[in-house]
Amino acid sequence: MMHISELTVRFGGFTAVNGVSLEIPPGSVTGLVGESGSGKSTLARAVAGLTPYRGTVSGAERGRIQMVFQDPYSSLNPRMRIGDAIAEGSRKPRARHGAEVARLLELVSLPASYASRHPRELSGGQRQRVAIARALAAEPDLLIADEITSALDVSVQGAVLNLIRELRAELGLTMLFISHNLAVVRYVCDALAVMRHGQLVESGPVEDVLDAPRHAYTRTLLTAVPKLART
Questions:
Q1: Pick from 231, 226, 224, 204: which is nearest to 215 by CA?
Q2: Do the domain assignments include residue 175?
Q3: Strand, coil or helix: what is 66?
Q4: How far apart are CA 24 and CA 45, in angstroms?
Q5: Domain total for the chain?
Q6: Which among 38, 41, 185, 193 is most buried, taking Cβ atoms within 10 Å?
Q7: What average pLDDT values come out for the chain (231 residues) when binned by 10 residues?
């Protein structure tokens, strides 16, 4: 069980995240939603160890929390071949890196031959698949997905979301899935947490939160969605 307890992030006199506590059960996907500036991405970066914070994050070793970012091109070294980028974070012996890279590429539905390519030779959706494979190479206890489809063409967003569902089922991934799209959250997540002004205002099973929200802010978010997709 991943435990986030009283996590607070301050930048000078500004409090970006204020005392957030959240549990993420193993093998589940917890969604995190809120308007731009609500603190959800800052919370994610703190949990991943990329931003200093106060509070505690337990249930995973340092390095066993991996993050996939919104823009796959900026998160990949343009001068590094795809295979090297994936192997860089692998926990396998160096002699097995080639086979492991091929396995991971296959896992995200890319040909093993892509290992010799550079990021510029791939589409946005393919680069995001590589970013996911690179994160999986570290055998994470928690995978954080931060708006991973928002920079992609609409035509490929669904394919990446389907991949996430398939990987979760096959690998038993534990995930924190950040999105502003409530229909996407309903499709991908088991539980949902809602942030506003750096604080957690509501959390619970995704269907409960979306179908019978308790907090006025959650209801406000829902009014902006004409109709939520159901699975």
A1: 204
A2: yes
A3: strand
A4: 16
A5: 2
A6: 193
A7: 97 97 97 95 96 96 90 90 95 95 98 97 96 96 95 90 96 96 94 98 97 95 68 48
